[in-house]
Amino acid sequence: MRAPIGDFDTAVPAPDRLEELTAPVADAVRDWQGAVPADRILYVDTEPQWADTAVFVEHYGRDLLERSANCVVVAGKRAGETTLAACVVLSTTRVDVNGVVRRQLGARKASFASMETATGETGMEYGGITPLGLPTGWPVLLDSAVVDLPYVLVGSGRRRGKLLVPGKALAELPGAVVLDGLGVA
């Protein structure tokens, strides 16, 4: 199957490539309940050394720059309690941690989680964290620009491989909250 975005050799329905995904991501795809069928979530094989956005678009298509999203883990703190959440914004923007995220989480302070926390809590590789398969109960904050895309490129849970997901499917994830202005230039 030809990928709907990017210059990939093949795109395969993610349910047919569960072995390429980390356990939490494979479980999320296997147990998918959204209105968008699971076979519309596509897996593309990519080289791990090209996982970072700038290098990635050079190899797999410049059109991906505006169709790629980064998923980062943030920690909101208030009264000694920490809330972890995922934030998904276009790769051409950055997460408004101190504004939109802090207010949404009701936190006094918000910051990016450490690499150790992000990978340890998600069961995913750094540089491959994806909004699919996150821990139960986590808020998944999505910039509305991501949800508006017909397909968006996100991590697969590993540095090798990516997922192409219809934007509206991301809005169906457990804990999903669509926010305007989450990603800022």
3D structure, described in words:
The chain is of the alpha+beta class and 185 residues long. It contains 6 helices and 11 strands. It has helices spanning 23-30, 53-60, 97-105, 115-122, 144-147, 167-170, and strands at 12-13, 42-44, 69-78, 81-90, 94-95, 109-112, 140-143, 152-155, 162-165, 176-179, 183-184. The strands form 3 sheets. It has a 5-stranded mixed sheet. Strands 1-2-9-8 form a 4-stranded antiparallel sheet. β8 and β9 form a beta hairpin. The protein is globular and about 50 Å long. The mean pLDDT is 95.
Strand order of the largest sheet: 6-3-4-7-10
Number of strands: 11
**SSE arrangement, N to C:** EHEHEEEHEHEHEEHEE
**What characterizes the major β-sheet?**
5 strands, mixed
Distance between the termini: 34 Å
Average pLDDT across residues?
Answer: 95
User: How big is the Rg?
Assistant: 15 Å
- How many helical elements? 6
Low-confidence stretches: none
Global outline: globular
Structural class based on helices, strands and sheet pairing: alpha+beta
Q: Strand percentage, roughly?
A: 25-35%
Helical residue percent band: 10-25%
